[in-house]
Write a structure and sequence with these properties.
3-stranded antiparallel β-sheet, about 100 residues, Arc Repressor Mutant, subunit A
Length: about 100
């Protein structure tokens, strides 16, 4: 028998990481300040969750300058997008079982 939580991915357990991936899945990229405002988190909190997603290669980081201001953009990797899709599908399966 398959476990109903088999494809639940521990990396997405935290609401901030779930929010980051949700935002990145529907956009080509999102910059740091936009994510911070969208998720209503502090710089340090967001940075630590972004680092966790980057460490497992679920997101990529692009740093550039706009004028003289630094701008950091994030996007999903193919591996990250696939892992997130599996995670969401597993959650949906659990929800359907309860109906």
């Amino acid at each position: 028998m398959h476990s109903i939580i088999k494809n639940i991915n521990k990396i997405f357990d935290h609401r901030v990481r779930l929010g980051i991936m949700s935002a990145l899945m529907v956009n080509d990229f999102v910059d740091f300040n936009t994510l911070k405002e969208l998720l209503e988190v502090t710089d340090g909190n967001l940075a630590s969750h972004l680092k966790a997603l980057e460490k497992v290669a679920y997101i990529t980081v692009t740093k550039e300058f706009i004028g003289r201001k630094p701008n950091t953009k994030y996007s999903t990797t193919a591996i990250g997008a696939e892992a997130f899709k599996k995670h969401i599908a597993a959650l949906e399966k659990i929800i359907r079982m309860q109906q």
